[in-house]
């Protein structure tokens, strides 16, 4: 029995050695010429503005948790749908379709109650931060805009 674990250990060791070998080869073959452009932070192709160490709104995490919750619900619904449509199970027990349907309705109902609770508590209400218009440093005088934008002064 211990030799079966040896096969698993050998497979894991071979995988680690393969990754280490590939990383070592790439490190020795690639050129290393850092410059300011390569060392800059990448923000979707835009120049980074300000400090990157900002606090995110905690509501992002609540939305992410709700997304994961309903994604897991779908993982349970797909196999249930396959088994629910199985004709052999329906023929073996006449109560099978009713039992499976009631069971899944209870499952989805509990999740719907959780969603309703989150909604009533206000966890899904997104508070918008106050915004202020950006100041533009334009070489064009503000009076030139009056011709095209009647409300600008």
Structural class: mainly alpha
- Please outline the major beta sheet: none
- Order of helix and strand elements from N to C terminus: HHHHH
Radius of gyration: 30 Å
- Choose one word for the global shape: flat
Number of distinct beta strands = 0
Describe the structure.
- This protein is an all-alpha fold and 153 residues long.
- It has a domain of 63 residues.
- It has 5 helices and no strands.
- Helix 3 runs antiparallel to helix 5.
Question: Mind sketching the topology for me?
Answer:
Elements: H1 2-29, H2 36-39, H3 59-84, H4 87-92, H5 96-121
Helix pairs in contact: 3-5
Quick summary:
The chain is mostly helical. Helices cover 59% and strands 0% of the residues.
């Amino acid at each position: 029995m211990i030799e079966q674990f040896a096969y698993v250990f050998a497979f894991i060791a071979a995988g680690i050695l393969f990754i280490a070998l590939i990383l070592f080869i790439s490190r020795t073959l690639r050129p290393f010429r850092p410059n300011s452009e390569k060392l800059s932070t990448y923000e979707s192709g835009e120049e980074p503005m300000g400090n990157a160490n900002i606090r995110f709104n905690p509501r992002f995490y609540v939305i992410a948790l709700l997304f994961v919750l309903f994604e897991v619900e779908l993982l349970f619904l797909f196999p249930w749908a396959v088994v629910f449509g199985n004709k052999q199970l329906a023929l073996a027990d006449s109560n099978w379709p009713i039992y499976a349907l009631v069971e899944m309705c209870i499952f989805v109902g509990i999740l719907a109650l959780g969603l309703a609770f989150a909604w009533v508590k206000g966890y899904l209400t997104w508070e918008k931060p106050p915004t202020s218009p950006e100041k533009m440093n334009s070489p064009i005088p503000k009076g030139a805009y009056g011709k095209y934008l009647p409300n600008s002064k």
